[in-house]
Design brief:
With 243 residues, this protein is mainly β. It contains four helices and 14 strands. The longest helix has 5 residues, at 135-139. The chain starts with 7 loop residues before the first helix and ends in an 11-residue tail after the last strand. 7% of the residues lie in helices and 34% in strands. Residues 5-30, 32-49 and 51-56 have low confidence and may be disordered. The protein folds into two domains: 8-149, Elongation Factor Tu (Ef-tu), domain 3; 168-240, PRC-barrel domain (SH3 type barrels), CATH 2.30.30.240. Strand 10 and strand 11 form a beta hairpin.
Amino acid sequence: MKHEEANKEIGGRGAEGQRSRGAEKQRGKRVGGNSKIKNVQSPVPNPQPLVASPRSPVPNLDDWLEIGKIVSPQGLSGELRVYPVSDFPERFEVPGKRWVLRLDGTEPQPIELLTGRYISNKNLYVIKLAGVENCDQAEALRGCKLMVPASDRPQLSEDEYHVLDLIGLEVFMQASGELVGTVVDIIPAGNDLLEVKLHESFATDKKQKTVLIPFVEAIAPVVDLKSNRIEITPPPGLLEINN
């Protein structure tokens, strides 16, 4: 599942739910993220080191996607360790314009990504940003978020879907047309799982609020974004497995 979170309140799971880099090779139906970079943007003219600013109101991030979080400096030359919340390595390895949201910022600020490499045993990227030349400047960015515009979404392959396009879809039993519930999250696993909030008319056990459904073609053969629906053909007992 290619996966990239937006504003976490609406985008679902945060960094703790992030899968490893190899997730792009999942079999069966795959969930697409937002998004591959189609073009390398031109550098930001005369980039300046980012510095702290006075406390600001909570930012409005509806038009932005978080792709990673800066967790610490790497070495003494200004490199940064980034924990990804995107499955697209291009976000961290292809030079070009990115945006940084400071801890107290209201708007992401443009910055130039110069280089990036993946550290497989850490599930981290090490990146170099223009204007960040030493450990002190890198330390000032600890905890900041890397962002891209929400409009930066590619054309996906067949059976690939943007995570945010799946959240909110209604799930129906294909054979009977019965409404099962609504997709509230996508959970990375060996096969990606739809977390479905059960409709009150479907839940036999009122204590059971959600069910996990493998997002594979054999179980979810129909995904109709235009009609806002997914049709499922679960094997016997699947919907009761979480009881």
